[in-house]
Design goal:
194 residues, alpha/beta, Rossmann fold, 6 strands, globular
Length: 194
């Protein structure tokens, strides 16, 4: 009986925690009329792993997987490269001194992979702000969609979210990732990008 009570408590806690995750778009620079990502290839540069301790590695793995699947469901081929898996990112050390993140250099050093994929667009996913507040993690993520031919940002947005962490940073990775992915897909659909 004790075992069953413990399992019910854990299940109820996990369900409650998933409900405590939010992500909504607060700022959107709309895409030009008629722009659609359907039947295109997109290369994503995710810099969220710079904040791995706050998001958790399992959540970032799940986010990449869900984002790729959601794009594919909308007829978009997506390839994700995390910063620390890039040539520059492997030798990058995060310091407390506020060092600038080499976004442009990361993209330039990966040009041969983009060329091999033949992507039409790239999306840069960057953690603008993470603010731990006790058990809560508040964050802002910037999403910039860039047309590869012109190297211009064609859609830009900022999402704000938060999630509750009771025991470790990597709790409920599937549910937390789903909240973020669902909101970005909803925003892109609203802008008729997908």
């Amino acid at each position: 009986m004790k075992y069953l009570s413990r399992r019910l408590f854990i299940a109820a806690t996990a369900s409650a925690m998933a409900g405590c995750a939010t992500n909504s778009f607060t700022s959107v620079s709309p895409a030009p009329a008629g722009l659609s990502l359907r039947n295109t290839k997109v290369y994503a540069y995710s810099f969220l792993d710079l904040r791995d301790p706050e998001f958790g590695p399992s959540m970032l793995d799940e986010l990449d997987r869900q984002l790729t699947a959601a794009f594919e469901a909308s007829a978009v081929t997506l390839k994700v490269l995390r910063f620390r898996d890039s040539e520059i990112g492997r030798s990058y050390a995060l310091t407390n001194g506020g060092m600038a993140v080499p976004i442009r250099q990361t993209i330039e050093s990966n040009a041969y992979r983009e060329k091999a994929l033949g992507n039409d667009y790239r999306i840069v996913i960057f953690p603008r702000r993470i603010a731990p507040a006790g058990a809560w993690k508040n964050y802002e993520i910037r999403w910039d969609l860039i047309d590869v031919r012109t190297d211009r940002v064609v859609w830009s947005s900022i999402s704000e979210g938060r999630h509750l962490t009771l025991w470790k940073a990597d709790e409920e990775p599937h549910e937390r990732s789903k909240v973020i992915v669902d909101s970005v897909i909803k925003e892109m659909k609203k802008g008729e990008l997908i």
